[in-house]
Amino acid sequence: MPLVFAGLASLRLVALGSKATVSGDRIEFSGTLFLRLLILFSSAAAAVVLIATWRTSETWERLALAAIVMGITAGWPPIVQIDDREVMQKWWWGRKVSIPWSEVVSVEENGVGEYQVYGDDGRAVRFSRYLVDSQRFRQEVRNRTRVKVTRVGDPISITKS
Length: 161
Fold this sequence. Notes:
The chain has about 160 residues and is of the alpha+beta class. It contains four helices and nine strands.
């Protein structure tokens, strides 16, 4: 288990040292190249094991390996974009959540580099600690919205109570 925590800490350190991509008035915060390669190779390795053991494995083993491949792939980090109009979160499977700055009602920080931006209709954009340049994200949110960034008491919790 300590090895897992060391790996997660390494991913966080790489994210802290990486910078967001700026294109015109848009700032894009994505997962680091290291994180994306880790997810890519992990899902590919699980898929290779699934294919290599297809004839000799039981049905439940095939289903478990397929679930592992899908679970690893689902972990691909979303892209969070900020521009003059809105904050937006885009997932690889096509889901988008966007909140215009005029509709932001609260911003929460959990103390470990994760943020939740809430819109007036309940929509939320989540900024993960494993995305690049969390300090820049925090500063941009403070500059673009009138609401105060509040710190939630439980650093484990990342959902709005």
